[in-house]
Amino acid sequence: MTTAETFLWYSVTPSISLGLAHLWKQNALRYLASVRLAAETERWPGFYASAGVQGIGTGNPGFSATAEKNFQLGALQVNAFIGLGYRTNESHTHPVGGFKLEFADRITIGLQWEGHNTHPFITKGFGHYIAGVYLIEGKSPGLMFGARF
Fold it and tell me: What is the pTM of this model?
């Protein structure tokens, strides 16, 4: 079980991102990649494939394929995704999905479902930085901090 994880992402191109994550409890590295297979258009979602790989005993290595769409509803920006995820320590795929609502003051609320559990979250953006809280399985609090440059 992952209890604390630190991520670092680098956008190689607008379609390819590579990342590295440190799993604190296991003291292990997770290698990450995300590829945009098709760009979002006004009528169609963008399509993505991603992978997170590390030793099988140190977490949930896996792969996913998702469709993601963004909508503007007045001052409210909506992001939604749906897809399939596969964990190598299980023998089947799971549906995955979620959404995020971002208000004009950079407060977001959302929900992420990774096939087993639902994780609601709320964040606030400050310039290049973001801070937030999420509820693991809807009950255990976790903290998020980030920066984008």
Answer: 0.84
Q: What is the pLDDT of residue 79?
A: 97
Domain ranges in the chain are 5-147
Separation of alpha carbons 34 and 54, rounded Å: 15
The predicted structure's pLDDT at residue 53: 84
Mind spelling out the 3-state secondary structure of the chain?
A: CCCCEEEEEEEEECCEEEEEEEECCCCEEEEEEEEEEECCCCCCCEEEEEEEECCHHHCCCEEEEEEEEEEEECCEEEEEEEEEEEECCCCCEEEEEEEEEECCCCEEEEEEECCCCEEEEEEEEECCEEEEEEEECCCEEEEEEEECC
